């Protein structure tokens, strides 16, 4: 993966987010997409070594589309300014837990694991799992290496009050208020070649494994 060329392309796309520029630069896009597919295929193999559940995933289907869904957005820019992929046993639509990464036009790489803004039924299962198995969740909270790497859950959309049906004095109620159960890090790709990028992403995914496995147990 030519990381520098990818960032340069994404910078150009961000500055010229229109179909005419995209079509003119389609040859560059096609080459970068092939390289990215190869990277995702390698990462699936890397992850399968410590999480066999993801083995055999199709790297093309794991990638997110470059086209934006603009149906309900005020921003009508047609293209994303990042290359991204989701690795999960059931693919991108897996309701449980994912490994996710993207490289964006700012030259940043985001590596994440967990469940982002799950559907209502899945979110309820996760919350109920915390309430019904507080000791198991406490064990997840004791994974010092994981939390040392990521810091904490992302708090986007977190409720101010306990959700309906959950008492305020429940163990771990502050976590039950979460709408997402995802951890992530973001850093610059400066100085990274394809091999270093692959290693960085795979190592981040491995650190997220305890959360990913706990979530699968919660939603099964």
Description:
The protein is an alpha+beta fold and 220 residues long. It has a single domain (3-219), classed as BirA Bifunctional Protein, domain 2 (2-Layer Sandwich). Helices cover 47% and strands 13% of the residues. It is built from 10 helices and 4 strands. The chain has helices at residues 3-15, 19-24, 26-48, 59-62, 120-132, 134-141, 144-150, 173-176, 194-207, 209-219; strands at residues 82-87, 98-104, 108-115, 181-188. It has a 4-stranded antiparallel sheet. Helix 3 (26-48) packs across helix 9. The longest helix is centred in the N-terminal third of the chain and has 23 residues, at 26-48. It starts with a helix and ends with a helix. 29% of the residues are buried.
What is the CATH top level name? Answer: Alpha Beta
Mean pLDDT over the residues? 95
* Distance, first to last CA: 36 Å
What would you report as the Rg, rounded to the nearest angstrom?
A: 19 Å
> How many helices does DSSP assign?
10
Strand content: 5-15%
The main pleated sheet reads as: 4 strands, antiparallel
**Number of distinct beta strands:** 4
How many domains, in number, for the residues? 1
- Biggest sheet, strands in spatial order? 1-2-3-4
Please identify, by name, the CATH architecture. Answer: 2-Layer Sandwich
- What overall geometry do the principal axes of the alpha carbons give? globular
Task: Looking at this protein, list some descriptive labels.
BirA Bifunctional Protein, domain 2; globular; 220 residues; 4 strands; four-stranded antiparallel sheet; alpha+beta
């Amino acid at each position: 993966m030519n990381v520098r060329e990818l960032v340069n392309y994404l910078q150009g796309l961000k500055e010229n987010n229109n179909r005419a520029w995209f079509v003119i630069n389609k040859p560059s896009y096609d080459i970068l997409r092939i390289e990215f597919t190869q990277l995702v295929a390698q990462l699936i193999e890397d992850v399968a070594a410590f999480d066999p559940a993801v083995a055999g995933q199709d790297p093309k289907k794991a990638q997110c589309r470059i086209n934006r869904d603009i149906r309900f957005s005020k921003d009508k820019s047609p293209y994303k300014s990042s290359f991204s992929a989701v690795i999960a046993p059931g693919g991108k639509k897996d309701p449980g837990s994912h490994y996710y990464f993207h490289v964006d036009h700012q030259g940043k790489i985001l590596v994440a694991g967990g469940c982002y803004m799950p559907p209502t039924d899945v979110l309820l299962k996760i919350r109920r799992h915390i309430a019904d198995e507080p000791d198991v969740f406490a064990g997840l909270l004791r994974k010092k290496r994981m939390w040392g790497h990521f810091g904490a859950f992302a708090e986007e959309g977190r409720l101010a009050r306990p959700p309906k049906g959950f008492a305020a004095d429940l163990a771990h109620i502050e976590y039950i208020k979460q709408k997402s159960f995802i951890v992530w890090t973001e850093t610059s790709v400066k100085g990274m070649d394809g091999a270093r990028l692959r290693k960085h992403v795979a190592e981040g995914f491995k650190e997220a494994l305890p959360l990913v496995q706990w979530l699968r147990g919660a939603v099964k």
